[in-house]
Amino acid sequence: MLLRQESDDERQAESCRLEKSEGEMNRRRLLKVMVSVAFASASRAAFANGWPKDRVIRAVVPFNPGASIDIIGRICANALSQRLGQTIIVENRSGAGGTIGSEYVARADPDGYTLLINASNQTIVPALYKNLPFDAATDFAGVALFGTVPNVLLVFPGAGYKSVQDLVAKAKSKDLYFSSSGVGSASHWAAERFLISAGFKATHVPFRSGLEALTEVMTGRVDFCCIGISAAIAFIRDKKVEPLCVTTLKRSPSLPGVVTSVEAGYKDSDYNFWNGLLVPAKTPRPIIERLSVEVAAVLAMPDVQRKLNLQGVEPSPVTPEQFDAQIRQEIAQNLMIAQQAGVQPI
């Protein structure tokens, strides 16, 4: 009995020793993790504080000078340059529906010195091209939205339409034509989304620019178009085109008297044209977060707000994480729109 008692005591002592040893090991592990986290946080802060260095930052716009995204991008880039105390050169690399400039940024070093100023086109191109040289979702990281530009459905003033319902009714008895600033443009996609919701077909007539698309409506050669308010507002004020609705969930402050397409009874017809800033996917997170903070500060500047308001831009603040999620959601949605509209990828 005595021998057995001694054995039990030894086992208990050994158990206590092991527990203490394990506890000490866990304490050391925790201390090691805490030190690692603190070191990583300090490194990220130092990294962010060390960027940008005395080096030019390139902001690529994948469309021609004078396009809405180019104008809006330059307004924000100029103010961002002042905030960072660093030169930002806006560089237009247009072609192939915006994919040439986007590919350039996707392949650039992810060091914070090459940025992409893009629009909703970012989420449309996967539905238009079979073999994109980049992945629109995973090869980029969203930084911030500059804002959204509501699309407005416009007709020739002499066409006799008093409401958007009149246009839809006319489409039941007559083949209609609509213009856009190109296949896959926001003006094309806004119209297709409205057509799907309203349940009628119309023939798409693409042009190279929004101005050309508007001109066709102003002359009455094309029945309607859905285009960004920033491109159309001057022509609306001069009564050269007639707005029937805005394809948004809420009315636009630029056209408060014009109903939304949803208000008019067309469910899921809303389509906003966004403008924003992206970077190569592997750009260090501290740089993305720094840029996001600086863009938010830029968008709060009264002079920037005034300039964006003149372009019909409405603020749409999101975090980088929310922007990434929005891009993924829109890509899936646009693939569905292309299928329903019968748009074949090339």
Give an account of the 3D structure.
Mean pLDDT is 87; it is low at 1-8 and 22-47. The protein is of the alpha/beta class and 346 residues long. It has 2 domains: 57-148 and 273-341, D-Maltodextrin-Binding Protein, domain 2 (3-Layer(aba) Sandwich), CATH 3.40.190.150; 150-246, D-Maltodextrin-Binding Protein, domain 2 (3-Layer(aba) Sandwich). Strands 1, 2, 3, 4, 5, 6, 7, 8 and 9 form a 9-stranded mixed β-sheet that branches. It has helices spanning 2-49, 68-84, 99-106, 121-128, 164-171, 186-198, 210-218, 229-237, 285-299, 302-310, 320-341, and strands at 57-61, 88-92, 114-119, 140-155, 176-180, 202-206, 224-228, 242-246, 272-280. The chain is built from 11 helices and 9 strands. The protein is globular and about 65 Å long.
